[in-house]
Each structure stands twice: as structure tokens, then as C-alpha cells.
Amino acid sequence: MKINLALTAPDQVETEALVAVVLDRAEKDRAEKDRGEKDKTEAFVATSDKNIQEAAAEVISSGETTGKNLESTLLHRPAGLKAKRLLLLGGGKAKKFSAADLRKIAGAAVRSLKAKGVRNIAVVLPEGGLSGADAAKAVVEGAFIGGFDSDTYKSERKDKNKSQSIETLTIVGSSDQSALQKAIDEAQIIGDSLNFTRSLVNEPSNRMTPTVLADHAKKMSQEVGLKCEVYGADKIKELKMGAFWGVAQGSDEPPALIVMRYEPAGAPEKPVLGLVGKGITFDTGGISIKPADGMEKMKYDMAGGATMIGVMRAIALLKPKVKVIGIVCATENMPSGKAQKPGDIQTAMSGKTIEIINTDAEGRLVLADGLCYARQLGCTHLIDAATLTGAVVVALGYANVGVFSNDDSFYGRFAQTSTKAGENMWRLPVTDDYLDLMRSSIADLQNTGGRWGGASSAAAFLREFAEDTPWIHLDIAGTAWMEDQKPWIAKGPSGVAVRSLIEFACNFGQE
Predict the structure, then answer these.
(1) Which sequence positions are flagged as catalytic?
(2) How many domains does the chain have?
């Protein structure tokens, strides 16, 4: 998708479709709410362009367009505009309108218009509230999110020759050109990296083995200037990563320990941010095999690793002055004559011993060694991402990432970033009470703590391998895959946490 910037009157933009935001400025007072009265609406187009206002006046006055979230009205040959179509998209209440809302509007516009055969669109940045740069960034990111489809292997896929893709997006603004262009350039990098992550997660496991995932990481690293090293079983054993190898030993596919380094000239020696991702390219559950129903989705169990690969790509292109190391522990979790069994004891890289209670609790095992290795490489702060537990879905549904941390200050900085990025995340406890559930009578730890509080007990297990290093764990099991099609995003991989992690890494150490 080519992104252009136009600093011109919106009514003069020649395009197949011009997109404008409609907001509702009406607010009920307390008495009206107490009486249960229906919402009043006072819709308006969020632009001072008089020709757009006049083109939308009839559908607004008739009540056809109210500004309700993602409400869509398409006008053909609008009078006074050079655009062939005017798409009005609702953004909800004006007082609550945010960059996250605008991001969804842009995604919905792309998905709606490309399905109608439109290939070139322009979006008028809404006036009031958001800065021009923030609005431009949200629109571009949202357009990339909306432009991705997961139907890669359909034989009759229509957009193999880009016949069903938005080819050109024009941002129509009136503020400072340099600020807008900078925001657009950054957003394009973020959007590309987010969709790169989604494309990795979308691949089936016969086409996305640990080796193939490592090849993607190496190729990407060469393109953007990252150092990348990939190690196999021998190195994993040499490093005494017994927890990682315990999972990998059951598969005929060789594992891959992927290490990506971003070490820019002029960056201080410390801090060093470590990004660790779970890269289980397919999870059968191992000997504790999963039910057949829904197992096909377990190709997405490497979403945490894919997230870190996409984040490292963006960091390399955005060039912050901070050192970042990305580590992905990639393997399959398979049942075989070589697979670890319930009751086995594994010794992690840190020296801690682990009793295997359930081989389907494998993600925490590979992350345990990944976190330890990150500390050994000099990382002073750690963030891991993993589709770790079904328990987090029970706790938070599909709406929020579960966040855990051993450091309130570190968490507070990340929470500010994730809020700004518009990604829903919720902190859950990781106290010693949950660690007690992970105590083993035969080893230091066991790899499950029972049914209750499963997301927190899994996090408590990981905390033991982060030790005193400031650490954040993102359980993305409920959010890394969109279960249903939404107006702004396709069913399939979501790329959750990519934007938050990019923003955080780029601002990390700037205190």
C-alpha cells in the first residue's frame, strides 16, 4: 500500500473514495440518564470543509447518519467534491473519540471499500481532539490492520495480483507537513511489521516449522540490519537448556534458538531490553495430548515468538538509541517415543529442576530457558510474550491481554505505553501464593499448579527464571487470534502487543 500526504482542501482531492469521520457531540445529563431516556444525537462531520458538510447534511438531518461507532454511509458522486464517493464512518461520542477509535475507522474503511472494488482512497484527518500527527499515525496503522486477510491459500483468492487490495492511501491534512510525514513514515513501518507478524502466525505448521521460522527471522534481519544467530539442538544442549530441550525432544523437526540483536552505535551500554517469545510452531499437547476439537488452531502457538520478530524488525527501522535483544525459543510439542512424559524431571538452564506434571504446559518451559539466556546475554529488563494459558481467556475473555510483572515501576511505564497504543491489557496478580501452587515434592518446581488461578500460577513459574530482573509477562492466548471477523480486522491473527512493544522499546531508556 502506497501512502501519500495531501495538504490541500479535502473537497479538491481526486480519489475513488474520500473517507470522513462523523461524531456525535450530544451528551445526556444525569437527570435524563436516571429517567432512562434514549440517547439524543447531534451528529456532525469532523472537518471544517464546507462542501463535505453540505454533502453529508441530508443524511445527517434525516437521522440516517448518527455518528454511532463504525456506522457507515456511502454517498456516490457527492456534489461539490472531486471524489467519486464519500464514505462517512461514525466515531461515537466526540468527547470520548480517541486514536484507537480512528484506527478502527481506518481499518473499517479499507475493508469496506476494497470489497467494493475501490483501489485508491483518501482519509480526511478529523479536526479537534487529536493532533494531526497522532491522527495520521492512527489512520495509517488502521489501514494496514484492515488491509490484511488470512485467506492466503484459497486457490481462487482474488487479490493474488492485487486486484482486491487498496493500492494507494492518501492522508488529507492541514497541519505541519514535516510532523505529518514523520508520523506517516513511522506508522508505515509499524503497520508493515505488524502484518509481517500476522503473516508468520497465519502459516500452517507444515509450512512454518521452527527451521522455517528461523529462516524468516534471518532473512528479515539481513534486510533491516539486525544481527541474527540461529542455534540448533547441539547449542541448546551445550547451554544446558533442559527445559527447552525437554519440549523439543519429542519432535522430528529440529528446534531453533533464534537470537536477534539491535545494537546501534552511540547507544548506552545499559539498559538492555530483552524480548523473549514463545515459538511453539505446533502444539499437540505432547503426551498429555489435546482434544481434537480446535487443535488446528494450535499453529498460532508461536504468536509470541512472531510478535518479537516483528517488533525487532520495526525497532531496526525506527532506530532508537537503545540496545534490544530478541530471543525466540522455537520448537514443536509432539507426542512420540522420544517425547518427555508426565513425571519426568528436567533441569533448566538456571539449574532449577522441574517436575513435568502435564506436557501441555510446555510454553513456560521454553520461556524459562529463554528468560535465563536473555539475562546471561546482559539484558537488564525483560518482557516475554506467549499464548501461554487457557486460564487467561477464562479470566479476561478475548478482550484483554493478561499482564504480569515483578516490578511496579517497570509495569507502570509499559502500561502508559499500551494505553497510548490503544491495546487493551489488564494486570493480574503474580504473588507468592501462586508460586506455592507450583512447588514440587520431588523437584524445585512443577510445571502446572492445578485448575484455579492458572494464568497467575504460570506467571509465577516464569518469575522464578526472571529472578530479580525487572520483568513483564504478556499472556496473549485470548487476544493473538481474532475468533470472528470484525469491521476493521479479519478473522485470524491479530498482531496484538506488537504496537505497544514497538512504542515501548523506542522510548525505553529515555528518562
Answers:
(1) 290, 364
(2) 2
d(CA 314, CA 163) in angstroms, rounded, equals 28
Please spell the DSSP secondary structure of 1-59, one letter per residue: -EEEEE-S-GGG---SEEEEEEEE-----HHHHHTTPPPP--EEESS--HHHHHHHHHH
Instruction: For residue range 253-289, list pLDDT tens digits in order.
Output: 999 999 999 999 999 999 999 999 999 999 999 999 9
Co-location of 298 and 268 in the same domain? yes
Q: Quick check: helix, strand or coil at residue 128?
A: coil
> 58 exposed, middle or buried (CB, 10 Å; 0-12, 13-18, 19+)?
exposed
Give the three cell numbers for residue 146: 484492515
Q: Report, in angstroms and rounded to the nearest whole number, the Rg of the chain calculated over CA atoms.
A: 24
CATH of residue 19: 3.40.220.10
Q: Are residues 107 and 218 in the same domain?
A: no
Tell me which H or E stretch contains 396.
helix 391-396
Mark whether 167 and 272 lie in a shared domain: no
Judge if 381 and 469 occupy the same domain.
yes
pLDDT digits (tens, 9 = 90+) for 304-336: 999 999 999 999 999 999 999 999 999 999 999
Q: CB-based burial of residue 161 (10 Å sphere; 0-12 exposed, 13-18 middle, 19+ buried)?
A: exposed
| One domain for residues 234 and 191 | no
Nearest of 465, 405, 399, 460 to residue 433 by alpha carbon: 460
- Residue 398 domain flag: yes
pLDDT at 470 over 80: yes
| DSSP structural state of residue 173 | -
CATH, residue 217: 3.40.630.10
d(CA 143, CA 140): 5
Q: Which residues contact 285 (CB under 8 A, 6 or more apart)?
A: 333, 335, 359, 360
- Rounded (5°) CA angle 195-196-197: 85
Domain boundaries, position 73: 2-28+40-150+161-195
Q: Is the pLDDT of residue 29 over 50?
A: no
Judge if 224 and 259 occupy the same domain.
yes
Strands 256-262 and 227-231: antiparallel
Cα 245 from Cα 231, distance rounded (Å): 12
Grid cell of 384 as nine digits: 516475554
Predicted local distance difference test score (pLDDT) of residue 233: 98
- Assess whether 114 and 227 both reside in one domain: no
Q: Residue 30's pLDDT is what?
A: 47
pLDDT in the model for residue 28: 57
Q: What is the DSSP letter of 331?
A: E
Task: Give yes or no: residues 85 and 170 share one domain.
Answer: yes
Alpha carbons 497 and 279: distance in angstroms, whole number: 15
Contact 348, 241 (CB under 8 A): yes
CA distance 374 to 395: 29
